[in-house]
Amino acid sequence: MEQILGKEWKITPAGGTTGEAYFAQREGKRLFLKRNSSPFLAVLSAEGIVPKLVWTKRMENGDVITAQKWLEGRELTPEEMKKDQVAHLLSKIHHSTELLDLLMRMGKQPLEPEDMLADLHQMIYENEQHVHKALRLLEKMLPDVQNQQKVVCHCDVNHNNWLLSKSGQLYLIDWDHAVVSDPAIDLGMLLHWYIPRGEWVSWLGRYGVELTESLQKRIHWYVIAQALLFIKWNKKRGYQEEVQRWRYFLESVLFEQIASLNNH
Fold this sequence. Notes:
The protein is an alpha+beta fold. The chain folds into two domains: 69 residues, Phosphorylase Kinase, domain 1 (2-Layer Sandwich), CATH 3.30.200; 188 residues, Aminoglycoside phosphotransferase (APH), C-terminal lobe (Aminoglycoside 3'-phosphotransferase, Chain: A, domain 2, Alpha-Beta Complex). Helices cover 47% and strands 17% of the residues. The strands form three sheets. A five-stranded antiparallel sheet has the order 1-2-3-5-4. A hairpin with a 7-residue loop joins strand 1 and strand 2. The chain is globular, with a radius of gyration of 20 Å. Keywords: Kinase, Transferase. It comes from Melghiribacillus thermohalophilus. Pfam families: APH. One of its GO terms (molecular function) is kinase activity. This is Thiamine kinase-like enzyme.
């Protein structure tokens, strides 16, 4: 990073799972730097979804460094995920034709549920009964989630990725895992983690949709599929506490969905 900015800049790691993000500071000027961030950062910046992009530079080794305005702000708390601002910004993202067109032009293929399920089946889960139960349920529900409209999905709408600036502007950051898929991928995790069940209808109303039976099925399908992926991801890295947390979450969603199916 120093070869780009110069030695007069103080550069410190910004944390995160990739280790590719940095803070840079010099004489009151501050930047957020990232190595090989999402190629459509410029459009996200233009749409006001992420902090302003200042410049992009390609290094001799082919790495691309982006610099964004470093904002004074903070992450949202879990309780703040109920805010209208969150529903409105996520809706804006899901309805952005500019983002969708750009990702498609970049060659991003839509993520279909049948492909996602095929990938899940190829993973080795050993003798984890709840995992195999989840896979059987995903197979059974697959026809309910196919042939849906595809949008740009962030895929990690954790409260840590929502940045509220001091001026009150809300941003959704860290777009490394974005896909073109069913918006239920984002809605499911956000609703299950942060919105009490009794408030789903009103929150989705602020987002701009009704909680139909079809949407409920899609939400449950993608939440179960993502939980399986997170179990595997954390297990591979030895994060046992996170593995256990996702197992408990998966079991609770399975119980809820099976009870729902039995009532119909």
